[in-house]
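Think of the structure tokens as a kind of shorthand, similar to the way a musician reads notation: each symbol stands for something richer, in this case the local conformation of the backbone. In the example below we present two proteins back to back. Begin with the first one, reading the sequence and then the tokens, and try to describe in your own words what changes along the chain.
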Amino acid sequence: MLETIIDLAQEAPAETFKKAIGKAREAYEQLDQCDTGRGQSVKEIEAFLDLPYFLDLLPRIEDPQKKAELEKKLAYYAQHQQEMEYAQVFLLLGSLYRDYEREREVDKLVAGLRCQLEKLNGQGKELEYAHIALALCQLYLKCGKKQEFTDLVKKLAQRLEQFNRTEKVLIYAQVSLTLVKLCLAFDNGSLPGQLYLTFKKKWDFDNLITKLELHNRQFADDKGKEWQHGQMLRILAQLHFYVGKFEAAETYFKDTIRKLDKKYPNEVRSHHLHAWLAHTLLKLSKFDEALQVVQEAIRHDELNFTNRETLGDVYFERGEFQQAIDTWKDTLWRKNSIMRITHEYEIKYDPEIYFKIGDAYVKLAQCHRELCRRKEENKEAVKYLEMALDLLATDRQEVRLKVCYSLGYFHFVMSEYENAIKHLRICQKFGFAPLTSTFYLAYACLRNKEYDEAIKQFSALRDLATDAQRKGRALTEMMEETTEPIVLGEMFALAHWGLAFTYAERNMDLPKALAQINEAHKHVARTRKWISKFHETEKKVEILFQARYYDCEGWILYKLEKFDKAIVCLEQALKLTVHAEVCLHLALAYEGKLRQTSDKKRGQPLITKAQMYLQYAYELDTNDQYKQQLEDLQKRLQEISQQLSPAFAKAK
């Protein structure tokens, strides 16, 4: 009875939590009569279960449902102040946040929490201090007070490293895990609670984790503390995962499952330990074992949505993108089917899965060479990414900006330049992937014939690249983790390419345009030289837009009526990428050369070439981006063909 209550108590809502703990207390009293040496405490377990849940409610007090839940919790704490450990701290925090919810004065709430920290400082109440410090860290995170957050985290970590009360080790471990999650949320620009895969920057928690490992040993040989031991193992596993020590995390997750599975199987399910283990194995590139773990978990628990979502994650990491999409869609369908039973309509409440599905469509489109399939998959990617953006909470700015960037990129790919510009401007404004966002924003303005703005943005890209180089960034360094990561050296090349292409499109200062594309070529050559010096162990980098540079040079030469040189450049571009625009430019170049020749015998092969590239361009122009230009060119070629050979034209 006791094991079942402990197993389920942490999932109980506020109105049933009191009854669950009451039954646990009765069971403990009966057990203590039989075994006085158990050394377990209901107060300790109750505080352990309640800490993360209570801290999660505090910053959401502005939500009426969360406020109601918090009020129920506080009423319970007030009724059981003598029986429940840390009830006074919870009540104090609740009082401060109630005042904030009524007055909406953040500075007053910050001052109140700081005041309480000062009162507890030096009194030996380390865990009470930690509770308030964690709440203040959450508030700093919500308000964007980065330096204050960093300073308080370092201070709290140092105090926890010196904590030596072994009888409170479970609370100590829970506080440590909550602190690490807050740092993880800080690095990812959101509130904690999501499964982020390790820190973006290094936080020093090595001493804290080492101390927890030492405390863990006190449970190892105590048969009466399997539950506590399992919780310690789980926390250690998650901590090692978060700091990137995946081999140790794998060991601890497997030990946790073995420890809890026999007596506390619901703990394994409620904490999604198989999903955690599978993600750990993915980080270690153990794809087959990860697949086996999650499939076995699903066989034992068909209704566990997290395991099914993790199965989609495994397929994605294995490069099986269609299977990942199908699995995630099945997960959504199952979740919505359950919700419809009680709500009688579909509820879209899971932005992470929508984002994953959109991302998988992105990868699937990149795998397919057929333009029609890529177009459909890009549309699906946009659809699911827009759903994710609609569902993401406003406090998750970093994730929202990532989705916003992806939407901008795919609207650009689909030639929907107004929408692309709208999303990319938001990314640029908030500094998300600043160089890449600026590049695609400039490119979208160019395609949308906003030439002045395009010149402005390409110039801004050049300035950003110069600033990055001045700060010590290498030419071969990938600047940002985006859909197509671009190295710094190529950012310079793209800035000059964009200016050159914009000048050419406007028929404005063509010699200056030629000088700009020559600068782009120089940056590409310099970057290639540095890339060739990379060791095999280095991350592979490459020039992504080489064909664009040849195409641009050919286009400028065409405008200068240097058709032979233009054709050489454009055919070089076509060898590197099969693109409608390159084929159009080639057809135009052959048309230009055709108009320069008066020899009918030489003219016939030229018109054949022009018509061939025109046909290629028609087939490749799936978005009808060049439709008018192609139709105009076709009419002109028909007229020339009739002049050269009426009989040939009639046969055609």
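Once you have a description of the first chain, move to the second and do the same.
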Amino acid sequence: MGFMGTKDTIGVLFLERVSVFKGALKSDSIEAQDLTLFERLRREQADGRPLKHAGTAVDKGVSGYKIDIFDRRGLGEWLEPDKMGLWDEVWITKLDRSVRRARWFLMFNWMLKDNGKKLVILNDPGFSFETAEDEVMAHMKAVSPQKEVEAITERVTDSHARRHRTAAWQSAATPYGYESVFRMIDTPNGPKKRKTLVLHKHTYDRLHDIRNWIVHDDLSLTDVMNKLNDMGELTAADWVRVREGRKPGERLHQEEGVEPQPAEWSLSTVVRMLKSRRLLGVKMTGTGKGVNKLGTPTLNDDGTEYRPFPAVFTDEEFDELQSVLKEKEGTPHSSEHTRDRIRGTAFCARCGYAMNRQISTKPNHQYVYIRCRKRKGKPACPGVGMPSDNVERFLSAEFLNEEGEHRDRRRIWDSGEDHSTRIKELETAIGNLTERLALVPVGPALDSVTASMKRHSDELEALKAKGSRKAGWIYIEEGKTFGEMWPDMDWEERRRLLIKRGVKFFISEDDWWLEVPTYWPGEEPDDEEEVVGEVQQRVA
């Protein structure tokens, strides 16, 4: 057990700490602090002071800026009631060995003062915490280590951001649509030859094919996945292998005698690829795993996205694609592989869920029914079903009776007049800068952040004050009527047309009916005629 201070002797507790900052703050080592403290102790003992070493509180790898002094393990045990009586003074080599936040430094000294103890700083022999004036002076002294850490943190953060804000591509994995090449690029240290990304013609063209399949041909996400696999289209990972001189699917340590198998596209791979803002040329950080599977965009000083690479899609093409993806993610099933001719159009009138085709085979005959199906947590509704031929016949007759004279409409993406993309960018930039405010010390860096925020806010206010028309889907009448088109269409084309129109065919135990919405899916009822008229004129 340590030394118990008495009225004739003074127990001294050494407080030693090494910062967690690596390479930024040059902290004294624990051994150097220990040597300095013991040399001072022996010198004062030789001068006649009744001092005795009570113990040493050591905190290795502990930040004096991030970790509250009262939460530190090494010091904490000496603040427990059973050890508080073992010492009278706390000795440190320098103020910043205790803590690097002014508030915590004051709280620590107030605790010492309340318990009849004091702090001794070896390189500041005049330090005192007795009077109100001493407290003010202590606060001023403690501010300096805090500002030093904040300045270094900002400098290191800015340096890292500047190094990352280049067109250099450091990963071995190349995003689909791109290939990596060595070129001269601008860096914080001048032009350097670095690996960067350029568009890869084959995969660039394929991405535009995929977008057309989804947006214009109305293929499901599973259809797209299956089509890519059926075509033998290489995944991004296999393109990397081919560029490295390996076969598709060949691992770095491929087992001898085992032929490598090309990687197959999965639904998650397709969706993640199409949602990534890399397709806009944005430099992303992060592995793309965990909570944020798409990574985090690198930002400019003004909070906007940093885009050093050529874009696969324009902002308008990307926004349109995201809108369609959002619609399709809930229904990714493949018509080509299920061959369900009315999938997505027939619904159970009791539970509201989509119905499925069921086939039963008997000698010399096959029966095809549309029935309510069992789902997780819900049994199939009994008695709800209809022969598939009847569904097709009734649905066709009723749809043509209600909509046969109406014309088909082409769905196009209208970017509107509200500058929505720029408004979104400004709001994101302001949010990013707001988060940085707490980390930026007072000075030029803070002035730059606040100036950027004001500039963004002024522009945002001006854009919102202008007349607006929300971006979204617009349906333009064209071509033949539904009645004219229907006889020449196969059932897959009819199914897609019914879904595009929002038609639902409900079946109960003893009845059926058709619901055709007044407005097309995604169509805004407010001033719709005016909007459609404007767009029709623009398209014409």
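Compare your description with these statements about the second chain. The chain has a mean pLDDT of 81.
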